[in-house]
Write a structure and sequence with these properties.
489 residues; mainly alpha; Potassium Channel Kv1.1, Chain A; 3 domains; 4-stranded mixed sheet; two-stranded antiparallel sheet; 19 helices; 60% helix; disordered C terminus; potassium transport; Voltage-gated potassium channel regulatory subunit KCNF1; ion transport; K_chnl_volt-dep_Kv
């Protein structure tokens, strides 16, 4: 094969005998025949195609260890592999890199590269990114399937306390596991709403009462409702902490930190009210209690635990840090420029409202975001022109990163739905195989595991394993089985 001019692979259907001195091997992959020469293959001697050069001297055992069939008359090696992936992989012998064609499953392509013994480092960076994204999806599907299987099985070797811990954790953390768990989730949601409403209603003057010292405080009934809600939140948090499989991860989780911030102000305020008066002045105690009561607003974030939409929004914003950073940068540059121009242009007016550039920052912020309170406004012609340009630039600066942020939200939301559907489909396939094949196949499979000294999974009586060339490795090291890949598209 010559590298000059228009490049094309030679056709093996041409007269092979005329080029017998040049032709080294003929390869037939899924009906696609290609001719390869020694100089090209020897560039990568560790690959499977390069090994074919020396396998003829080793006899048929050596030949069939590398290929599926061999025709000695044509000196043609046969492989029952994907021809589309093969056409991409052989580019490494001529261009030194590999590009994955659109429509080929990244995981299947990776398996093909491993079969042909071509290192992944030759895969182009754009294709590596696609492959890593697909691997993350598979790991997420495997994790979800593993969590569901853990809920289905009961390990008889565990102690009664360990089983009780798992039951409480599933009862409080997984509403979909049972009807009582759904009831508890709805009840917790109602407590959060009630507590938030009580916090708002307690600030209405007509709903407040005057204490013995003449200060307006919340109505005792509202205080009682608040205490009941805090009691529920406390009990829920303690039970979840006790039953958590990983206490440190539980304590450092963002949503659990929010739970603590929602509960802690109540107990600190209670402590300061009863004991703080002895240690500091009463006015200081009241100010500290009032500041802590404001922190109760954090409990509204507890709704995110029960709302998949809020969770999706949070993750989408985390994925959009780059776009949000661009938005803030655009606004920061515009605020600085237009506030400085506004201050300079308004100095000629005797009644100017622009006293300094830092004070002009406020005017630039409310102008570029099109809020326009009107507390600071330009009075000169140039100042008004500067204001018009500033809010036009503000609209453009805000609009530019919005589309990528929305795309990130839609992409993440759709991805979560696909992963959830894929995990459910995996379980349906496993249940279907379990119903079809119980008896002999199941017995022989787990008999092999037992003969090798491996632990037989505790869920073997309920779900049977499905096998395929492409499979999902579960993340648990204790339970070994494979499932069909449903997420490759």
């Amino acid at each position: 094969i010559k590298m000059a001019g228009d490049f094309r692979f030679p056709d093996a259907d041409t007269d092979v005998t005329e080029k017998n001195e040049e032709t080294e091997i003929v390869v037939n992959v899924g009906g696609v025949r290609q001719v390869f020469y020694r100089d090209n293959l020897n560039q990568y001697p560790e690959t499977r195609l390069a090994e074919l050069l020396n396998c003829l001297s080793g006899g048929y055992d050596s030949i069939f260890s590398l290929c599926d069939d061999y025709d000695p008359g044509k000196r043609e090696f046969y492989f029952d592999r994907d021809p589309d992936a093969f056409k991409c992989i052989i580019d490494v012998y001529y261009f030194g890199e590999i590009h994955m064609k659109k429509g080929i499953c990244p995981i299947c392509f990776k398996n093909e590269m491993e079969f042909w013994k071509v290192d992944l480092k030759f895969l182009d960076d754009c294709c590596k990114t696609h492959l890593s994204e697909k691997k993350e999806e598979l790991e997420e599907i495997a994790r979800r399937v593993q969590l569901i299987l853990d809920d289905l099985g009961v390990d008889a070797s565990e102690s009664r306390w360990k089983r009780c811990q798992k039951y409480i954790w599933k009862f409080l953390e997984k509403p979909e596991s049972s009807y009582p768990a759904r009831v508890i989730a709805v009840l917790s949601f109602l407590f959060i709403l009630t507590s938030s409403v009580v916090m708002c209603v307690g600030t209405i003057p007509d709903m407040q009462v005057v204490d013995a010292e003449g200060n307006r405080v919340e109505h005792p009934t509202l205080d009682s409702i608040e205490t009941a809600c805090i009691g529920w939140f406390t009990m829920e948090y303690v039970l979840r902490l006790i039953s958590s499989p990983n206490k440190l991860h539980f304590a450092l989780s963002f949503m659990n930190i929010v739970d603590v911030l929602a509960i802690l102000p109540f107990y600190v305020s209670l402590t300061l009210t009863h004991l703080g008066a002895k240690l500091m002045e009463l006015s200081n105690v009241q100010q500290a209690v009032q500041a802590l009561r404001i922190m109760r607003v954090a409990r509204i974030f507890k709704l995110a635990r029960h709302s998949s939409g809020l969770q999706t929004l949070t993750y989408a914003l985390k994925r959009s840090f780059k776009e949000l950073g661009l938005l803030l940068m655009y606004l920061a540059v515009g605020i600085f420029v237009f506030s400085a121009l506004g201050y300079t242009m308004e100095q000629s007016h005797p009644d100017t409202l622009f006293k300094s550039i830092p004070q002009s920052f406020w005017w630039a912020i409310i102008t570029m975001t099109t809020v326009g309170y009107g507390d600071i406004y330009p009075k000169t012609t140039l100042g008004k022109l500067n204001a018009a340009i500033s809010f036009l630039c503000g609209v453009i600066a805000i609009a530019l990163p919005i589309h990528p942020i929305i795309n990130n939200f839609v992409r993440y939301y759709n991805k979560q739905r696909v992963l959830e559907t894929a995990a459910k489909h995996e379980l349906e396939l496993m249940e279907l195989n379990s119903a079809e094949g119980k008896a002999a196949s199941s017995k022989s499979e787990f008999g092999d595991l037992a003969s090798e000294g491996k632990e037989v999974p505790f869920y073997s009586s309920r779900l049977k394993v499905s096998h395929s060339d492409t499979f999902i490795h579960l993340l648990s090291e204790e339970k070994h089985y494979r499932t069909r890949l449903q997420s490759c598209k």
